[in-house]
Model the fold of this input.
Amino acid sequence: MANINKVEDVDPVIAAVNLVMQRQASQQGWRFGRNRYFFNDKQKSLIGTRIWALMGLYSSVRLGNRLTLVNVNNCMSAFCEPGKLSEALRAFNISSIDAIPREFMRKVKVSTRYLGYKRIMTIQRIVGISASRQMFPCEELGGMTSIKEYYFRSA
Done:
């Protein structure tokens, strides 16, 4: 390893060792969160309508007292099946006997491709009004505008 005398010199070395540690996981699975990797294998289980629990691993490298510490742990997280959000909400509604899905999709990340490129956004909340009727104040468009008008103004 290099001769490291300052704390500023350590950060790039630790980042490089982290990349080496996570290389195989990043090639065989996908990254979710910080330093967590998940794999689509036989160790997944259905925990709800269109919701799967997948096993993965967490790894990190950091400095200890005169030595380098490597932390590798297993982890688990829930994933929704890919598909239309409306179909996921409909399946939730059927299986939960008309429960209100306010917390069901909270903080879920969705990807859209309607602008010609992949854009990842986070769902903030579920409302019972369509995008063309839900209004909000927007200075960009000069007053009240609908969600549909806001997102499709350049399409």
